[in-house]
Design goal:
mainly beta, globular, 14-stranded antiparallel barrel, 3 helices, 353 residues
Length: 353
């Protein structure tokens, strides 16, 4: 038999590692704080301004899966408006995500609409302000795969020692697309804004509450695990120009668990046309299928805030056993957010994640 090339051996090893308990998991972003729509529905409308537009892009494992690495695209738009006599707000938004993985182009697509209500619990102009937000999202999703890019044991020609793609695969019940499924998410967020414009927040969300069916075969028994997530963080000024932004995120979806911990450092000129720079380091922990927890990656982040815009760039440095295959080259990520200002300038009432 002909020799298998190292990339094929590595791919076989990866598939064998997960095949015993494989189910679809949600795409994720290392800059989760710059993709609030995909983190917690209660963060809808949590910004200072009339509306916010965000785009995110992630390119993972290009070093050994090129030209078909894992890629994730996301975009969202939100607007908020004041309700009542107090500093209470309601917000609505829409978001979409596209994720593709591997040679067979396994794709996950979803579009959701959502809303949140932001209630001021206490505080005022000369005291710390406490808020509680509750939000929900409802939308549709669909998964797909290109079966023509795959071959099965029945198609292997032992005489020629190669796959015969013209032979029948025997997978007659395989569908190119899953049924269009309904998806429902909900979450809560509490935060406090200090007089020095520092802030602290804590929140949690439950995604895929209805555990939709996502099967690509006719028995339709495969469902999407619900995902629990909890997150907290803040901004704590050190001087007039410098602040630290620590954060933590915990997620669990079926047998998979992930924890992100890190800190960003922020410098701001505190001008009317604010220019701010952020730089930070984050670590990601995850579990193997045998439930052993290991350090998966270290993420280096740089962000630029220029008045209404915020641009983030990050790179995941692999530190797990996968370094044997990718030489520590993990994932590149970019985020871009635009904040449209209010009609008139007002005091900060929301964190700037």
């Amino acid at each position: 038999m002909k020799q298998l090339y190292p990339p094929i051996l590595m791919l076989v090893a990866l598939l064998s590692l997960f095949s015993s308990d494989i189910q679809a998991q949600d795409p994720r972003f290392s800059q989760y704080y710059a993709s609030s729509w995909n983190l917690n529905p209660a963060m809808t409308g949590i910004f200072n301004g009339r509306w916010r537009a965000t785009v995110n892009y992630r390119d993972q494992w290009n070093s050994f899966l090129s030209p078909v690495p894992f890629r994730t695209y996301a975009a969202s738009f939100e607007t908020r408006f004041n309700v009542g006599a107090n500093d209470d707000y309601a917000s609505v938004g829409i978001g979409a995500m596209h994720d593709e993985a591997g040679t067979a182009r396994f794709q996950q697509n979803k579009v959701q609409v959502g809303g949140a209500f932001l209630k001021q619990l206490s505080g005022g102009r000369y005291s710390n302000e406490h808020y509680l937000s509750a939000g929900a999202q409802l939308g549709f999703g669909q998964n797909s795969i290109d079966w023509s890019k795959l071959w099965f044991t029945r198609q292997f020609d032992t005489n020629a020692e190669r796959p015969d793609l013209g032979a029948s695969s025997g997978e007659n019940n395989a569908n190119a697309n899953s049924p269009l499924y309904l998806d429902f998410n909900a979450g809560l967020l509490w935060y406090v804004v200090f007089q020095n414009e520092g802030f602290f927040y804590a929140g949690g969300a439950l995604s895929h509450i209805n555990q939709p069916a996502i099967s690509l075969i006719e028995d339709n028994q495969e469902t999407l695990y619900s995902r629990w997530s909890g997150h907290m963080g803040g901004q704590f000024p050190l001087t007039e120009n410098f602040a630290i932004l620590p954060g933590a995120l915990f997620m669990k979806q079926g047998p998979a668990m992930e924890t992100d911990l890190g800190i960003n450092f922020r410098y701001s000129n505190n001008d009317l046309n604010e220019l701010a720079l952020r730089a930070g380091v984050w670590g990601r922990l995850g579990n193997k299928l045998d439930n052993n927890v290991q350090m998966d990656a270290i993420t280096v982040v740089g962000m630029l805030e220029l008045n209404r815009w915020m641009l983030g760039l990050s790179y995941d440095i692999t530190v797990s056993s996968l370094t044997v295959a990718n030489n520590s080259r993990g994932a590149f990520e970019v985020s871009l957010t635009y904040f449209h200002p209010e009609y008139r300038r007002s005091r900060v009432t929301c964190p700037k994640f």
